[in-house]
Design a protein that fits this description.
The chain has 107 residues and is of the alpha+beta class. Helix content is 16%, strand content 36%.
């Protein structure tokens, strides 16, 4: 990630770079960019080289609903001081990360 800081002036940390912006109501919002090493297994079981991450509300119930609808759940939900994470596969085998953030952790 040092390359991106040196050549593109991105302020990176161990997770990549966070881009802050405001929505049309003036609320603080962010977009996270996170490159991974070439031999990462983080996207498995997908064979793709990228993964979408969506902010969601009430991850536990969403994962149950998706499971009930036949969506493939990948692994177990994980909780951290900055939010909860869960993973699913779409109909084409792409891994999708679902994140229920704890916004106070970023203030």
């Amino acid at each position: 990630m040092d390359w991106y800081g040196k050549h593109l002036s991105l302020k990176t940390d161990q997770y990549g770079a966070n881009f802050w912006w405001k929505d049309k109501e003036g609320n603080d919002c962010s977009t996270q960019w996170s490159p991974f090493v070439e031999d990462t297994t983080y996207f498995a079981p997908s064979e793709k080289q990228l993964m979408q991450n969506f902010r969601v509300y009430d991850l536990e119930n969403l994962l149950k609903k998706l499971s009930d609808e036949g969506v493939t759940i990948v692994g177990n939900m994980q909780s951290y001081e900055y939010g909860k994470f869960g993973w699913i596969l779409d109909s084409e085998g792409n891994k999708i990360e679902l994140w229920e953030p704890i916004d106070a952790a970023f203030q």
